[in-house]
């Protein structure tokens, strides 16, 4: 179980980190005010500082209001549900990088329908493959928009 | 079928029809045209005109897919070509920024990581002022700028790109000093000049033609060794050929032109390079190409092979000198 | 009026069976690309462009503009049904359109969106019919300081309201600005914040951020709540559509105000995205039901849609007259004009009046055709929502990722969309407002460029922002909108004992 307090702290730390990244990235260029107005780094630098400052503000508010923030952010059941959604999605992206978007889409739809929707395997697999084929026909054939492809498409001779 | 006598064309056509087997290369899948500008830019127009001519005249058996990769002033497209090393089905369309961009920005490709195929046209640069300004010729305008240094605004497309390079050349050739204002594109610089927000720009003919016709801007001179081609009058009094060259008008700059170039990735068979060079050569001989050149007032000049390499080397050296002088080069 | 005579002549040109058939084909194709993942009007236009090379220019531009209208409508459809904006300018439509759909009012939301969009577009076209020559001249008065003032105005009217903690609003906005700064910097010609990654060379695409923050983030929330859309099984009857049409006059004030904002942003360089945000912001400020905004307030659908389309159609005129495209779609169309042998620019109106007025007339007809056709598709689209979540959920995920990939054809963007998705989920759960981030990403780099160009022109003097009446007026209105509410809140806080606002 995660309470709201920890979630707030973690997010504020993360945004402060992003702000700091912008500040560091901006230092590579001038951050001053030259003859012709602000130098290229000035804008990202001050924006980064602003994000860091506001994140610090969030941290401070969170800590001073600690007692009010003990409410549940994510209970066990919700965490399981979120994980059961996020993990297949991450797998989808990984497979898309390796085998192409079409194969990944077919596998992903099949998996989610079978495991979470409790459809029969044959129905799920047919839907998954069907969806991939429809996407292929519309995007590649219809609109000539190429998607990420993998070894299967190469073996089938599709470009 | 064989109309041209150039050995390149003759052999390529012979090859296409199966005469000599040793150089038989043809695309075996759809060819991707990678455009190093966003939709609507000059390079985009160039690539799409080539595409429309190839499909109209059936110059290639395979279909063409055009993709825009204009990020980072075009670097995105060149990087894409670098990663596609060895793939002869990706043709990249650009300008001289292929070999100039790596000087001014830290990029993960080197100019020689792409194979030059052809340069198809040279885009011209002119010096333009607002139509209501009192200057009738380049000399008097430059004198006025010299009299009040750093108060005249020269607009252009992007920063450390062709327009600013040319501005820098004008400055060192004449001693005048401008304030250079970079805009998102030549179109925007043209409108800013028509609205009187800047004093001059160095737009290509195509970018300012409409405003010139409408009487909002006027050209002072063209940065070309010879005057532009004769054509119909643009305004009541003047046509493109009536514009003096800048050298005639008193700015000692011989020539400043931007080549429209086509590239393949590294490591492709030389037969593939010859194949595309031949297709593009045929494109440049069509009436549609002639029409495109006329409409955009570019100079029609087809370069390939050794000729192209020589051109690139000298263009590269000329620009590099300006970059060094201005301190734009990044390590 | 000479313009009306020209317009009548234009109707004569546009109103042929052939042209009306082209309009219908165009609108249908447009709806298709608008609804499909990753495809937008620019894709459709560049696909059709080669087909139009053999057509006469009037027929060609009618086909392309009709497709453009269709795509805009299609984009609103996905915003409302799935919280995935198809075009940047329909982001503001999601704020209230999606909550309405979740409350079972998908048909109402879609009907209102389409009708107000049609209304806005007609107002935009009427404006350019009456004022075509004035508009072109007016647009010439805008330079970088005025551009900056317009962006500032759009920003000021949207930000500074809402119940979220000010720190969280600042974080969200600042991150948006930082993301917008990544990539090539126009003014210096150098790369910024790429940290040597080639993937960041062309910047962080706004569309990827939107797909992640809105589409995927929303799905994660839905999953956490347990796998279903609330109240989504409501049947859609044709009667709902008709009933909703009857409620439209109620919003006359919003319609007129939003049209005015849209037209103004269309002829100045603000563009449809800025227009829709600004219109939403003002509608919320001026409404008596402020608190209902963001929870399915119909006015929150009407306002951005009207302004978006008013801006979209009035922006075509400056494009034709000045030769500067206002959007990616307009840029592709301009390329088309040149290939058909027409030169966009001030002379187009004089040299080819048949083309220009035929186009304007086709904008009237095309919009009417488009509204009728999309209204007819509402029951079809709303029925998508009755598909079980275990099927439609993963399909939306796939659609989001395909969309993210097709933005630029970069595999890296798949990861980026995933990251933005997780960020969207966290932000929503912790009450960080997302809209300021989105607006900052859209306008951030443009505003920064305009500011720095102004500074180059003035050699570093800020006085350029009140150097003429136009820019000074814009800045004063912007400042009033930005700080007016803050000052009045401050005054009322000082008058009353303060209450904690952390949990808000």
TrEMBL record, chain A:
What keywords appear on the UniProt entry? Membrane, Transmembrane, Transmembrane helix
DUF1468 domain ranges (all copies): 16-147
Q: Which InterPro entries match?
A: DUF1468
TM region(s), chain numbering = 12-33, 45-64, 85-109, 121-139
The protein in question is named Tripartite tricarboxylate transporter TctB
TrEMBL record, chain C:
Q: Where are the transmembrane segments?
A: 20-40, 47-69, 109-135, 147-164, 170-188, 200-221, 259-283, 319-343, 355-382, 389-408, 414-443, 464-487
Q: Where is the DUF112 domain?
A: 22-439
Q: Where is the signal peptide?
A: none
- Keyword Membrane set for record: yes
Pfam families according to UniProt = TctA
Keywords for this entry?
Membrane, Transmembrane, Transmembrane helix
Q: Which InterPro entries does the UniProt record give?
A: DUF112_TM (IPR002823)
Source species, domain of life: Bacteria
Q: Does the keyword Transmembrane helix apply?
A: yes
PANTHER family, A to Z: BLR4373 PROTEIN, TRICARBOXYLIC TRANSPORT PROTEIN
Q: What is this protein called?
A: Tricarboxylate transporter
Species this protein is from: Microvirga vignae
Lineage, top ranks: Bacteria, Pseudomonadati, Pseudomonadota, Alphaproteobacteria, Hyphomicrobiales
């Amino acid at each position: 179980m995660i309470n709201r307090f920890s979630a707030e702290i973690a997010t504020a730390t993360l945004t402060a980190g992003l702000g700091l990244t912008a500040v560091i990235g901006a230092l590579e260029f001038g951050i001053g005010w030259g003859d012709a107005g602000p130098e290229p780094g000035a804008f990202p630098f001050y924006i980064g500082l602003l994000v860091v400052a506001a994140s610090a503000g969030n941290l401070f508010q969170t800590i001073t209001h600690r007692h009010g923030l003990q409410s549940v952010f994510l209970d066990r059941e919700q965490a399981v549900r979120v994980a059961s959604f996020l993990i297949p999605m991450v797998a989808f992206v990984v497979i898309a990088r390796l085998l192409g978007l079409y194969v990944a889409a077919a596998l992903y739809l099949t998996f989610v329908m079978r495991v979470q929707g409790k459809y029969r395997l044959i129905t799920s697999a047919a839907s998954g493959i069907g969806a991939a084929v429809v996407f292929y026909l519309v995007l590649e054939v219809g609109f000539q928009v190429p998607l990420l492809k993998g070894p299967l498409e190469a073996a089938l001779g599709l470009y | 079928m064989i109309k041209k006598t150039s050995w390149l064309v003759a052999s390529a056509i012979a090859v296409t029809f199966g005469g000599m087997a040793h150089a038989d290369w043809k695309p075996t899948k759809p060819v991707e045209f990678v455009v190093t500008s966003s939709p609507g830019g000059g390079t985009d127009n160039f690539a799409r005109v080539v595409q429309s001519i190839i499909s109209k005249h059936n110059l290639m058996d395979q279909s063409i897919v055009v993709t825009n990769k204009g990020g980072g002033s075009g670097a995105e497209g060149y990087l894409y070509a670098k990663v596609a090393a060895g793939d002869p089905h990706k043709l990249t369309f650009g300008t001289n920024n292929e070999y100039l961009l790596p000087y001014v920005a830290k990029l993960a490709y080197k100019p020689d990581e792409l194979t030059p195929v052809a340069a198809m046209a040279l885009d011209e640069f002119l010096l333009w002022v607002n139509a209501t300004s009192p200057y009738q010729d380049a000399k008097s305008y430059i004198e006025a700028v010299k009299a009040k240094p750093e108060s005249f605004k020269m607009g252009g497309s992007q920063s450390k790109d062709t327009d600013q390079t040319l501005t820098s050349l004008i400055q060192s050739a004449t001693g005048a000093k401008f304030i250079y204002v970079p805009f998102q594109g030549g179109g925007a610089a043209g409108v800013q000049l028509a609205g009187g927000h800047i004093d001059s720009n160095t737009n290509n003919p195509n970018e300012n033609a409409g405003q010139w016709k409408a009487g909002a801007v006027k050209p002072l001179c063209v940065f070309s060794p010879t005057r532009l081609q004769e054509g119909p009058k643009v305004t009541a009094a003047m046509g493109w050929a009536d514009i003096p060259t800048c050298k005639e008008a008193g700015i000692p700059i011989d020539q400043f032109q931007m080549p429209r170039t086509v590239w393949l990735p590294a490591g492709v068979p030389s037969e593939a390079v010859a194949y595309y060079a031949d297709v593009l050569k045929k494109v440049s001989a069509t009436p549609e190409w002639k029409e495109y050149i006329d409409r955009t007032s570019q100079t029609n000049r087809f370069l390939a092979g050794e000729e192209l390499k020589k051109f690139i080397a000298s263009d590269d050296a000329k620009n590099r000198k300006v970059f060094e002088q201005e301190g734009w080069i990044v390590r | 009026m000479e313009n009306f005579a020209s317009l009548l002549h234009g109707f004569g040109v546009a109103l042929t069976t052939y042209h009306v058939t082209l309009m219908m084909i165009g609108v249908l194709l447009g709806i298709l690309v608008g609804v499909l993942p990753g495809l937008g009007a620019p894709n459709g236009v560049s696909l059709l462009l080669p087909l139009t090379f053999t057509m006469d220019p009037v027929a060609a531009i009618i086909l392309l503009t009709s497709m453009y209208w269709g795509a805009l409508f299609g984009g609103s459809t996905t915003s409302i049904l799935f919280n995935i904006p198809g075009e940047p300018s329909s982001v503001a439509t999601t704020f209230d359109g999606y909550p309405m759909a979740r409350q079972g009012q998908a048909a109402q939301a879609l009907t209102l969106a389409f009708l107000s969009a049609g209304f806005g577009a007609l107002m935009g076209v009427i404006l350019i019919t009456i004022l075509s020559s004035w508009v072109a001249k007016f647009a010439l008065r805008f330079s970088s300081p005025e551009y900056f003032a317009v962006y500032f105005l759009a920003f000021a009217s949207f930000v500074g309201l809402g119940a979220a903690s000010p720190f969280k609003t600042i974080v969200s906005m600042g991150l948006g600005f930082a993301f917008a700064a990544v990539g090539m910097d126009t003014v210096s010609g150098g790369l910024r914040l790429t940290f040597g990654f080639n993937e960041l060379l062309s910047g962080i695409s706004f569309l990827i951020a939107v797909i992640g923050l809105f589409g995927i983030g929303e799905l994660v929330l839905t999953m956490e709540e347990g796998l279903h859309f609330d109240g989504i099984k409501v049947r859609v009857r044709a009667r709902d559509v008709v009933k909703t049409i009857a409620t439209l006059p109620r919003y006359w004030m919003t319609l007129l105000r939003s049209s005015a904002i849209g037209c103004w942003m269309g002829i100045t360089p603000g563009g449809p995205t800025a227009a829709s945000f600004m219109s939403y912001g003002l509608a919320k400020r001026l409404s008596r039901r402020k608190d209902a905004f963001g929870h399915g307030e119909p006015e929150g659908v009407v306002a951005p849609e009207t302004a978006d389309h008013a801006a979209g159609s009035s922006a075509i005129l400056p494009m034709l007259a000045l030769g500067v495209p206002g959007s990616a779609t307009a840029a592709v169309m301009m390329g088309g004009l040149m290939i058909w042998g027409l030169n966009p620019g001030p002379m187009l109106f004089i040299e080819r009046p048949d083309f220009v007025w035929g186009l304007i007339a086709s904008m009237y007809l095309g919009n009417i055709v488009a509204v009728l056709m999309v209204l007819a598709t509402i029951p079809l689209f709303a029925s998508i929502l009755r598909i079980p979540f275990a099927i439609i959920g993963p399909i939306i995920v796939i659609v989001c990722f395909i969309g993210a990939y097709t933005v630029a054809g970069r595999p890296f963007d798949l990861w980026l969309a995933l990251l933005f998705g997780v960020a969207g989920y966290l932000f929503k759960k912790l009450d960080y407002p997302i809209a300021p981030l989105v607006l900052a990403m859209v306008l951030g780099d443009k505003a920064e460029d305009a500011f720095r160009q102004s500074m180059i022109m003035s050699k570093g003097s800020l006085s350029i922002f009140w150097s003429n009446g136009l820019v000074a007026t814009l800045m004063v209105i912007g400042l009033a909108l930005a700080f007016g509410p803050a000052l009045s809140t401050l005054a009322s806080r000082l008058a009353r004992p303060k209450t904690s606002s952390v949990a808000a």
